[in-house]
Specification:
mainly beta, binds 2-acetamido-2-deoxy-beta-D-glucopyranose, six-stranded mixed β-sheet, Immunoglobulin-like, 2 domains, rod-shaped, 3 helices
Length: 255
């Protein structure tokens, strides 16, 4: 009997403590509702901070931060104020302005590349403070992707894949007949936000037969992927005809 009492009582105590705790700390953030991945130039996109405010709490102030910089402040019943990356892009739905005690919505009319990064919502009252954060990645599709082959020496060829315009910095892979080749590869790290360009070269032994060469680009942390394919005609086979440096491309992407 004693053992039953012992096993039951800790959970009762826990429940009581939890009940007391949640009654006192009625102010809390339930969730941050925002997309994890968004394409540059699209919109509108809602950033929603969902919270609960204790009935007895006064002095509600809601703030949003982007990468530790404050971008928004709302002291109801005044209107929200915004600065920085969301200025001129934010709208505040009337329904939300009338009902500030459950959530704060920032409606971004158009997504810009600067909006990528971590967002934090904080709520505070005279007694309590709570915060929650979430990340949103803004990506830009490539403006160009090319796969080429260059003679390297008598026995080897240089396969290169170059991608421009994609952000954040994509990773590249080269496949020869479906098999990834990365030995003696050289990947260019010359990537800047203002001139986003990446390339990958792989030097491989020249082939005898026409060969499918494929480059895969993917933007990390997103589902954005793209493949570009060419058929390489080895020089021994190329010399015969004038019109057989044929190219076949096949692109697809997934978001
Ligand atoms: C992002 O989208 C905007 C609006 O469509 C466009 O003006 C801008 O050039 C884009 N940025 C990049 C880096 O592509
Ligand atoms: C061509 O380059 C490759 C890779 O550097 C090397 O292994 C090979 O010996 C070279 N071939 C000739 C004919 O120089
Ligand atoms: C392969 O070709 C590209 C394009 O011409 C060139 O930039 C790169 O340096 C070459 N790689 C090697 C290892 O020679
Ligand atoms: C090269 O590719 C193999 C298999 O595709 C992979 O296991 C390995 O990590 C890659 N190496 C580099 C340096 O990327
Ligand atoms: C040219 O390609 C064909 C197959 O497409 C191959 O059988 C042949 O050996 C190649 N010719 C040379 C000279 O390598
Ligand atoms: C190239 O020419 C050789 C010799 O004339 C011939 O045997 C071969 O089939 C030709 N290859 C192609 C791809 O036409």
């Amino acid at each position: 009997m004693l053992s039953i009492v012992h096993t039951v009582s800790p959970s009762i105590i826990t429940l009581l403590i939890f009940a007391c705790y949640s009654e006192v700390h009625g102010t809390s953030i339930k969730s941050l509702d925002m997309p994890h991945i968004v394409r540059n130039g699209t919109g509108p996109v809602d950033l929603i901070c969902i919270y609960e405010i204790d009935k007895d709490d006064n002095g509600l102030v809601i703030k949003w931060f982007h990468e530790a910089y404050q971008i928004y402040q709302w002291i109801p019943p005044m209107l929200p104020q915004d600065i920085g990356i969301i200025k001129d892009f934010a709208e505040y739905p009337a329904e939300n302005l009338k009902n500030p005690y459950s959530h704060s919505i920032i409606r971004l009319k158009t997504i810009t590349i600067d909006m990528t990064g971590e967002y934090m919502c904080t709520i505070s009252t005279f007694q309590y403070e709570a915060s929650a954060s979430a990340k949103m990645i803004v990506y830009v599709p490539e403006s160009d992707m090319t796969v080429r082959t260059y003679p390297f020496n008598k026995t080897h060829v240089n396969l290169t894949c170059a991608v421009t315009g994609a952000q954040p910095r994509p990773s590249l892979r080269l496949y020869v007949e479906g098999i990834e080749r990365n030995e003696s590869s050289e990947s260019s790290i010359d990537w800047h936000k203002d001139d986003p360009r990446v390339s990958l070269d792989v030097i491989i032994e020249d082939m005898l037969d026409p060969t499918v060469i494929e480059c895969e680009m993917l933007i990390p942390d997103t589902e954005y992927k793209r493949r570009e394919r060419i058929v390489y005609y080895p020089s021994s086979n190329r010399s015969n005809a004038t019109d057989n440096i044929a190219f076949e491309t096949n692109n697809f992407f997934v978001i």
